[in-house]
Amino acid sequence: SYRQVPYHNALHGATVGRSIFALCQDPTLTGRLGDNLSKEMQFTLVLAGLVHDVNHPGVTATFLLHPGTHDTMDLAIKYNDQSPLENMHLAVTFELMRKAKNAFLSTEQVGIIRSALIRAVLGTDMAKHAEMITKLDALIDNLEHDEELTRSSWYWPATPPGILKTDKQRQAWVHKLQEEFVMEVFLHACDISTVGMPFDQFRKWNKRVTEEFWLQGDKEVKEFGVLISPAAGFDRNAKGESRHGFTLFFHGAAGIAPV
């Protein structure tokens, strides 16, 4: 159910799914932050990678949230401006999984992975990037020091539910929260990992995403009469300096120094 768009297509989904699978095979990662992700959660993570952009329309949330948008899916209205694309990807995924020909998981199994799958895919919203990095830094700090000695827990402002009366119950709650957050981080990292690929592969993916953004820029000018997204990246007539700055932005988001 992926659309034929330049970048956010089935090949991108497969690439992210494969990257997630490779990440799960590295015990130094799954053990260090994830406290050894269970097989069920590793499966959930790979599935999330495969479906995280399913049915992507080839435009960003900025386009969908513009009041002049005449998109037939009305995603911004349907999801109240909250991660419209990611919510749609999840809705399509669960609808597909309900079909008999795709029912490779039982209802009980879907119930087990549902929460983690939702959180992981929602975490691919670039609007949440800064918040995620802040929480990741706090989590690492909590792991390197006794959590009781740190100023606050990494999951603040969330707090254990009041019904959890024992330390064991609260620890189980924190562990589940940590596991799902680590999955969220892993998927987000793989989603923007093309800048870390060998140069020939990066260049191909860069051409794909650039073309998709240019097409959106053309559509914005046609529908709105003006470019609403940054010229650096969405204006096919932008100067070379602007394009270079756009590439540097994605290098920075992925935490990779430009060469």
Could you walk me through the main structural features you see in this protein, from its secondary elements to its overall organization?
The chain has 259 residues and is mainly α. The chain has helices at 10-24, 27-32, 39-51, 61-65, 75-78, 84-98, 107-122, 129-144, 167-191, 199-224, 231-234, 240-253. The chain starts with 9 loop residues before the first helix and ends in a 6-residue tail after the last helix.
Low-confidence stretches: none
Q: What does the main sheet amount to? A: none
Please work out how many helical segments DSSP would assign.
12
- Average per-residue pLDDT, rounded, comes to 86
Distance between the termini: 37 Å
Number of extended strands: 0
Question: Radius of gyration over alpha carbons?
Answer: 20 Å
SSE sequence, one letter per element: HHHHHHHHHHHH
State the assembly state of the protein chains: single chain
What best-fitting shape do the alpha-carbon axes yield?
globular
**Helicity range:** 55-70%
> What percentage of the residues does DSSP assign to strands (E)?
under 5%
Overall structural class, as computed from helix and strand content, comes to mainly alpha
Question: Which properties best describe this structure?
Answer:
single chain, 259 residues, mainly alpha, 12 helices, 0% strand, globular
